[in-house]
Automatic annotation (TrEMBL):
InterPro entries: NDP_pyrophosphatase, NUDIX_hydrolase-like_dom_sf, NUDIX_hydrolase_CS, NUDIX_hydrolase_dom. The lineage of its organism: Bacteria, Pseudomonadati, Pseudomonadota, Gammaproteobacteria, Pseudomonadales. Its cofactor is Mg(2+). A motif (Nudix box) lies at residues 87-109. It comes from Aquipseudomonas guryensis. The keyword Electron transport does not apply. The keyword rRNA processing does not apply. This is ADP-ribose pyrophosphatase. Acts on ADP-mannose and ADP-glucose as well as ADP-ribose. Prevents glycogen biosynthesis. The reaction catalyzed by this enzyme is a limiting step of the gluconeogenic process.
Length: 199
């Protein structure tokens, strides 16, 4: 199936701020062949995001950031999450440029080579956001401290962990957000190849 199998009857903007919420009235072709009934769906319209896992192949360590996340406030005992360096593509930038800019802003890190992992939709049932996911080569020696842009309300603590400790934190549920889990598990599966090329 393709876009030709979706008929948008009406699209209205319900809210517009930094993000946007649209309501779509649509029909789509069903697997049996005919067009289905009219549906009403809300769509959270977001900028695409870039997430990068800084990895030091010499020390086999990763750089993670910790910051407050309002989305985790009502459903988590601790709304300060361990995450990847990340940012939105909200200007005329390529994803790789966003990865490098955000690494400097959020972790005071200069990234070397970027290894694309994947591009995915984190919540396609109600949001159009795509995530560009990378591993970025770095030197983790001396990394740490608190960073971020004060004008954006950022208060970001930087951690350097052995990769094995980060993987254990995924297993224990201490790292509990999709981009971090995907990137760390990908690195666990591809560590030998990455270290071979980057060491």
């Amino acid at each position: 199936m393709s876009h030709a199998d979706v008929e948008v009857l009406q699209r209205e903007t319900c809210f517009k701020g930094f993000y946007r919420l649209d309501r779509l009235h649509l029909r789509h072709r069903q697997f049996a062949g005919g067009m289905g009934p009219q549906l009403s769906r809300e769509l959270f319209v977001r900028h695409d995001a870039v997430c990068v896992l800084p990895y030091d192949p010499q020390r086999d360590s990763v750089v993670l950031i910790e910051q407050f996340r309002v989305g985790a406030m009502d459903k988590s005992a601790n709304p300060w999450l361990l995450e990847l360096v990340a940012g939105l593509i909200d200007k005329d930038e390529e994803p790789e440029e966003v990865a490098r800019r955000e690494a400097i802003e959020e972790a005071d890190l200069t990234l070397g080579a970027l290894w694309p992992i994947t591009t995915y939709y984190p919540s396609p049932g109600g949001s159009d956001e795509r995530v560009y996911l990378y591993v970025g080569r770095c030197d983790s020696q001396g990394a740490g401290g608190v960073h971020g842009l004060p004008e954006e309300g950022e208060d970001i603590r930087v951690h350097v962990w052995p990769l094995e400790d980060a993987l254990q934190a995924v297993k224990d549920g201490r790292i509990n957000n999709a981009a971090s889990i995907i990137a760390l598990q990908w690195l666990a599966l591809n560590r030998a190849e990455v270290r071979g090329l980057w060491s």
